From TrEMBL:
Residues 1-25 form the signal peptide. Keywords: Signal. InterPro entries: PAR1 (IPR009489). This is PAR1 protein. It comes from the Eukaryota.
């Protein structure tokens, strides 16, 4: 009984903090510093993304841009450092790839209660990325809890991570590899 009475204020505080953060200021991706760009959502509802480019001196520099990807529920949201840490992501990565799912450590971090239950922006991003690869993130996380190795095997088999090898009879018909 006591645990349910504690959950309600915590949930209300979390929802209120999301609303308060969105009303504090207009979030514009191009105005964000590079250390806040990744995992931020502009007030327009579009995801921010970190891009690299060569500056006038020829060295690598970074800029924050607005993507075309819209997140309807979290407009004006900048992910907390606690969530970035709990989910095992890095704000300085340029681009995002489904390759992260093939790391058991990443999947364990993403599926951990500290991330999965408290970091809706990161979870939403990777939920959509997993779906694009034919993987249902809640099912992957459920498997991750009970059998992390099986979860990785199923992920590899569902995403086509490994190409099938040639059949013995096919070798005679296969073209010889070109030497470069």
């Amino acid at each position: 009984m006591a645990s349910s009475s504690i959950k309600v204020p915590v949930i209300l505080f979390f929802l209120g903090s999301l609303f308060f953060q969105a009303t504090l200021a207009e979030v514009t991706c191009e105005d964000l510093p590079k250390n806040l760009c990744s995992f931020a959502i502009a007030s327009s509802g579009k995801r921010c993304l970190l891009e690299n480019y060569k500056n006038e001196e020829g060295s690598l520099d970074y800029t924050c841009k607005t993507s075309e990807v819209v997140v309807e529920r979290l407009a004006g949201y900048v992910e907390s450092d606690q969530c970035v840490s709990a989910c095992g992501v890095d704000r300085e990565f340029v681009g995002i790839s489904s390759d992260a799912f093939f790391s058991p450590e990443f999947a364990a971090n993403l599926c951990s209660p500290a991330c999965y239950q408290n970091c809706p922006n990161i979870v939403d991003l990777y939920f959509n990325l997993a779906a694009a690869e034919g993987v249902y993130l809640p099912a992957l996380c459920e498997k991750q809890k009970s059998s992390p190795h099986r979860a990785m095997l199923e992920l590899l088999s569902s995403s086509g991570g490994a190409a099938p090898g040639p059949v013995a009879g096919d070798l005679a018909e296969a073209p010889s590899p070109a030497i470069i």
